[in-house]
Amino acid sequence: MDAAMTGEPWPVPDVLAHLAGRWRVERDVRDLASGDEGRFEGITVFSPLTEDGLTEGGLAEGGLLHEESGTFTWQGVARPAERTLRFLPGSSPGTADVRFADGRPFHGLDLTTGRHVADHPCAADLYRGEFTVLDADHWRSVWRVGGPAKDLVLTTDYARVG
To answer: Global pTM?
Structure first.
């Protein structure tokens, strides 16, 4: 029985090598305060990031550029949506330092056990993300956002494409 069936995390010795490539993304967003629900569907591409931020050549020391694009539907209205993150080599082998596109720190990522929990304070709100690798081609992130401005749960499933 594979990890996706048993619910056991699937260890990843090198998160950057594992994430490289194209992933289909499905994200459910629930506003716990209002009961509203939304959905994002699209593609995330993790491509080599060179020191100048361009994606050519090998991983070198630059890590990966995470580019997500698709459609976000909220309260029946569909809109294009995209985001960009940088996944840089972390402080220990096989880990990553995730940053926003402008270089600000977001969170660390260590999937050597197949599961990682990360916190990101944002003003008075706290984002807590749990990342779980289900098998070689599937992983999930669940962000719980709580505070005076937000009360959300964002569940994202990733499936490798090709």
So the answer is: 0.89
109-153 pLDDT tens trace? 999 999 999 999 998 999 999 999 999 999 999 999 999 989 999
Phi then psi dihedrals of residue 93, to 5 deg? -55, 135
Q: Count of residues for the chain?
A: 162
Query: Which candidate, 134, 133, 140, places its Cα nearest to that of 157?
Result: 140
Round to whole Å and give the CA distance between 40 and 72.
4
- pLDDT value at residue 50: 74
The phi, psi pair for 110, rounded to 5°, reads -130, 105
Nearest C-alpha neighbor of 131 from the set 86, 91, 96 = 96
CB 135 within 8 A of CB 113: no
Q: Identify any residues that bridge with 30 across adjacent strands, giving them in sequence order.
A: 37, 153
